[in-house]
Amino acid sequence: MSEFRHTFPREEKIRKKKDRDALFKKGKVCSGSILQLFFLPRGDNLRKAGFAFSRGVTPATKRNRLRRLLSEAYRLNKEKVGLGYNLLLKVKKTVSETSMARFETEFLTLARKAGLLRSARFEPGQRREKEKAG
What we know:
Blueprint: H1 17-26, E1 28-31, E2 35-41, E3 47-53, H2 60-77, E4 85-91, H3 100-114, H4 129-133
Parallel strand pairs: 3-4
Antiparallel strand pairs: 1-2, 2-4
């Protein structure tokens, strides 16, 4: 069995405005208490993700911290989501402070709700044995 690498390279990031706009206009959405998950099938065997934040989350230092936490929560759990989708995670305006664990739980809950999880064996907040040891 091949080891999954917990990386988030540039090729896996949504960088083009037209891709982000397509997610907002044509994509399906699932909402939670702190996040909205927009998703759209790609037609290939890749998975790309992007993050959106409201300027209502102020000051910028808090917004940037939330961006880092959300990116890390996605990076650690992306293998649980099926391939062939563009994903956009949008943080709601009302969020000012939260933890990475809360982002992880919310992301996995929304992915399950949207039917994007690969298998039901992973639960929110659950880590593989190697991650617990290391």
